[in-house]
Here is the input.
Amino acid sequence: MNQIKIGTIIGLWDDAAIISKLAALGFECFAIHCGESAEGFDVPEAFKRLKEAADKTGTEISAAGIYGNPLDPSAGAEKSLVGIRQVMDNAHILGANLFTGFAGRVCGRPVEESMPAYKEVWGELAKRAESLGLRIAFENCPMGGTWRTGGWNIAFNPDAWEMMFNEVNSDSIGLEWEPCHQMCQLIDPIPQLRKWVKKVLHIHGKDATIAWDVLREHGFDSGVPYVWHRTPGFGDSNWADIITILRMGGYQGNIDIEGYHDPVYTGELEWSGQVTGMEYLKRCRGGDIITL
Here is the structure.
């Protein structure tokens, strides 16, 4: 059985020395965030130094991704597409076979109006990924959007996933899933994960806390906060259940904590929160694989 490794997200721009520091704290893998377009970076050189640092510490690079909007020219689609191709073409340097990011969106329009652009752009990119031995995982983040308007990413809702996977029918395309973004939509993540686990290619370690008392008093459209993004171990989800579903579904990837969102474990407490979250996730997976 492949072990689910527990890691965190680092930036393409980070000093490679951060890998040795985080490995010493117990992080086992890293996902590389390459910004909205990787513009201004020598992607092959940056990947080389990060891979060398990972190799020295015995850690792994899970994935690398671009989190821009490749569907809407008004949101810098061409820059994002250049970055996506660069990251895909050089992912082999990292030893990673997974590209992650946003699917994009025609800004300000209903989800279904993005489907023609999605089919054109990601149909071509899916073929590129397949030729490179890569898979594509879309993060399930709405980027502040709803079904009707806004955002940079249509891949935030299961109804959209049905449409997307019908438009581009490729085994190379799946989800970068986390419970947080579903909970913020008041979707129960556990039955959703059971249904969609075969399409989950990467996990972001991020949870949420829902204040149901606030919702019952004010509703979801009052301006009173009712949900907060949390580091795993501090939110509402039981990650032992999540990891159980992943393993029963044959999940082969890692879990990389997405930090810098928790309203409590932030600032000088950021890494205290992330290390606690990492240790919690390791307990939820059942610790190391032991053979007698």
Observations:
- The chain has a mean pLDDT of 97.
- The longest strand covers residues 60-66.
